[in-house]
Amino acid sequence: EAGVAQSPRYKIIEKRQSVAFWCNPISGHATLYWYQQILGQGPKLLIQFQNNGVVDDSQLPKDRFSAERLKGVDSTLKIQPAKLEDSAVYLCASSSPGQGYEQYFGPGTRLTVT
Amino acid sequence: QKEVEQDPGPLSVPEGAIVSLNCTYSNSAFQYFMWYRQYSRKGPELLMYTYSSGNKEDGRFTAQVDKSSKYISLFIRDSQPSDSATYLCAILRGAQKLVFGQGTRLTINP
Fold first, then answer.
1. Are B86 and B26 in contact, with CB atoms under 8 Å apart?
2. Residue A31 has what pLDDT?
3. Residue B102 touches partner A, C-beta closer than 8 Å
4. More confident residue, A96 or A35
5. Nearest to A103 among B4, B94, B98 (CB)
6. pLDDT above 70 covers what percent of chain A?
7. What is the mean pLDDT of chain B?
């Protein structure tokens, strides 16, 4: 079974630039999550999708972050404009319905904002 | 008050030692408790989960939940260098939302 795929793996941008991350979840997983993991901290949920719909985006900084999940499969997370404090690893995860405790994570995208 | 609190360490022990990793949580309504392991430059992976209270054992790993004190623990017996990683405790809030602790960085020295 293929795992969660993410790209790019690394990205360096200057502040005020924009950046986008892509995620392909495990086939058949209806629930998709984006997390932000700052160095030395645990992952923090940014947004959760159930199929195409947003279930929880309460911690997403909506003035600069946006996310979409087209056709209930792949997802993109965008930051525009980036700030220095956005430097982090952005993790995508997916799970089967009713199995929220068992989330499968991708390798993450390491973002550095200079 | 944070929902889950975890001592960030770092923790360094010799090979073969017993390791104890701990977290506290704030809400007695939580029922699912997880331990995820994260190797360097990888995403977290589920190691063990416990529903409600009690112990759960899987090989060298034991997860323990004490609901009276809101305390969760992970014990690693006969620790190996391959166990070196960051260990994240997590609780399940609602049906599908994980809330993670800060993570404890563990190093097992040969």
1. no
2. 94
3. yes
4. A35
5. B98
6. 99
7. 94
pLDDT (mean) for B93-105: 91
Relative to beta strand A88-95, strand A104-105 is: antiparallel
Nearest to B102 among A42, A98, A104 (CB): A42
Is B75 an 8 Å CB contact of chain A?
Answer: no
Q: What is the pLDDT of residues B36-70, one digit of tens each?
A: 999 999 999 999 999 888 899 999 999 999 999 99
A37 bridge partner residues: A89
What are the pLDDT digits (tens) for B74-91? 999 999 999 999 999 999
Locate A114 and state its tokens: 């200079």
CA distance B23 to chain A (A): 13
Nearest Cα residue to B74 out of B44, B33, B35, B106: B35
Task: Give B12's contacts (C-beta < 8 A, 6+ positions apart).
Answer: B106, B107, B109
Query: Would you call B103 and A98 a contact, using CB atoms and an 8 Å cutoff?
Result: no
- Chain B residues with CB inside 8 Å of A91's CB? 43-44
Contact between chains at A41 and B49 (C-beta distance less than 8 A): no
User: In whole numbers, what is the pLDDT of chain A averaged over residues?
Assistant: 95
In SS3 terms, chain A reads as CCCCEEECCEEEECCCCCEEEEEECCCCCCEEEEEEECCCCCCEEEEEEECCEEEECCCCCCCCEEEEEHHHCCEEEEECCCCHHHCEEEEEEEECCCCCCCCEECCCEEEEEC
